[in-house]
Amino acid sequence: MRKMVNKLSDAIFVITEERSCPIYNLGEEFKVENLGLTVPAHKPGCLYLAQAIANIVTSKDRFSGIPKFGAQKSRFDCGGCEGRIYFEFKKERDFATLQMKLLNETEERRRRQHLDKFFGVLRNLDFFESLDDDALSDLTMLLEMRTIPVDHVVLKKGDSGSHLHIVLSGRVAVVASDGSRIAEMGKGEIFGEMSLLSGEPVSSSIHTIADTQFAMLSIKNFKHVLKKYPVLQLFLFKMLVDRAQTLALRSGNISSGMSGELSEISTIDLFQLINSAQKTGTIDLALELGRGMVFFRDGEIIHARFLKHRNSDALFALLHEKRGHFSYTKGIPKELDKLPPIGGFIGLMMEGLQRIDENR
Question: What is the Cα–Cα distance from 39 to 23, expressed in whole angstroms?
Fold first, then answer.
């Protein structure tokens, strides 16, 4: 009798139903060998599940209903935490067929090819720069790779977020309700994270504007990865802050402490944002040639300086600059508060653009 119990202790179970389980997915398998439990690759072990399977494989009464060759299935559950899974006996390990062994070998070869093909691509992306090779290998095995042709919808506004998307090649556009493009993203950029983090519906539609290859991480695996590799949380936080600032600039909602690069927004567009919002504040520009400053009161330029230039000459010189860093702070020095505008804003911008065209 003891021999029979030991015989049944080696078994494989498969998940047949999943209800909000925070770790495992439908179709994944658990193996029991010599009373040791193996869970799906790169997933943590769950103590609820381990206890449930331990009770199954060590109890003759509960396990004896399983036919020797798996002709019928017996249904079990994990006991539940914040979610629950149901799983069934698939086969006793000792009776694995040659076909099953071949399928397992094929799957292992596929996973290895998957890793070999995409590891190098992912290693060059900023998002994974902080991970060591072993951690990146584990994460790579959780990713799904998908190619979507040009002019197809990747995410639709209002839908529930299901995956984090990482662009490996190609290009996508963030599309407004009226069909206009809000922004574009290319290789190495990430989207879909806000819906996964907040649980809110997707806020903007994403369309491919070229044949695009993605690495996709399901919401369940996304949460698992963030818990296992906290350094990725820091990367996402910084990325979200930068993206929020960029969107705020484009929408004209500039606020004190905001900063960015002139490669993302031109000096003309930046000055127009301050003017249209009728802000009183200071733009500080760190440029290759030196520092420039432009002071606004109620959206009008009252003073500007750049190198030896002052006021309109300084402003026109700054309009030529394409590279550098800017920051905006609320308020202006008291000694400048009574100064009149150096000219009408629209007129200054028009004259500055004319000078740029003449120089060209």
Answer: 11
To 5 degrees, how large is the angle CA 44–CA 167–CA 206? 105
pLDDT in tens, 222-276: 877 877 777 777 677 666 666 656 666 655 566 667 788 888 778 888 888 888 7
- Domain end (from 223, 249, 275): 249
Residues of the domain holding 17: 2-96
Clarify whether residues 244 and 263 are in a common domain.
no
- pLDDT at res. 152: 93
**Mean pLDDT for the chain overall:** 79
What are the strands of the beta sheet with 212-218, ordered from one edge?
Answer: 144-148, 212-218, 163-169, 190-191
